[in-house]
Amino acid sequence: MLAVGIVSEVFGPHGQGLPGFDFALCAERPGPVPTDIGVPLAIEHGLDRLASADLVIALPGAGFRTPPGPAVREALVSAHRGGSVLAAHCVGTFALAEAGLLDGLRATTHWRFAELLAHRHPEVAVEPDALYIDEGRIVTGAGAAAGFDLCLHLLRREHGAAMANAVARDMVLPSHRDGGQAQYLAAPVPEDCRDERLADVLAWAREHLHEPLPVTELARRAVMSRRSFARRFTAATGTTPHAWLRNLRLSSAEELLESTDLPVEEIARRVGYGSAAVLREQFVRRRGVPPRSYRRSFTSTP
User: Fold this and answer.
1) pTM
2) pLDDT (average), residues 247-259
3) What is the rounded distance in angstroms from the CA atom of residue 200 to the CA atom of residue 263?
4) Are 175 and 152 in contact (CB under 8 A)?
5) 253 CB contacts (<8 Å, ≥6 apart)?
6) Quick one: pLDDT at residue 191?
């Protein structure tokens, strides 16, 4: 039920000004489907609905150790051949693996079941630590609430940072966690850091993103040595100060590229890069395209 709640919250109806999707739950046999909390779901659609879907997400279920039937496997393969993006998180990844869709690809699942997935499907490169892995038209994610990260990543990838951030704000969630971030963290997200001194420093850094922000300055503001700051930062957020700042700068640059017509040089200055060339280098390395190409794909300005 958690997985159903996650995907329906992201792709279901939102408030005014937020995107609406043609969202449907499907099953091999429509009708009441049991769930892990004892409340059945009334499923209206069969597998034929997958044929017209742009995105198909295989949800996790308690029976994942038993391979899905031929009809489910064939429907997943057919949807993929027809151009759909296929995704799964937690043990839903097993369904994609059983359908042969992960052969030769990297994939992840809940860390507790990563060894089982690798044992059953040696042709899949299982990465147990990853939060989610994007292989183009196949995307897999970690367990439990990491389904939000997977869905928001898909929303960001297809419709841009501004839309993904708006949906995340509507759900009171952090807008972005990098796919390489570890699944199991002492505190799940830096935005909700429980260390009060660190939280104050993170908030200050967001307000001063246009400045260089060396780790020594962040540590000074937290009243810690550089080494102690780095250790506590990683323990609290699951990533390093440098990686956190880089992701914050790039996410801010994405929003500015989408929502303004500011020159790339000015955007680079506002997010703390010394020049447009440095921003371009980071953007190409981390997002796969230069800033101007990203703007052409996602801009909301005339």
Assistant:
1) 0.71
2) 89
3) 31
4) yes
5) 267, 268, 271, 273, 279, 283, 291
6) 45
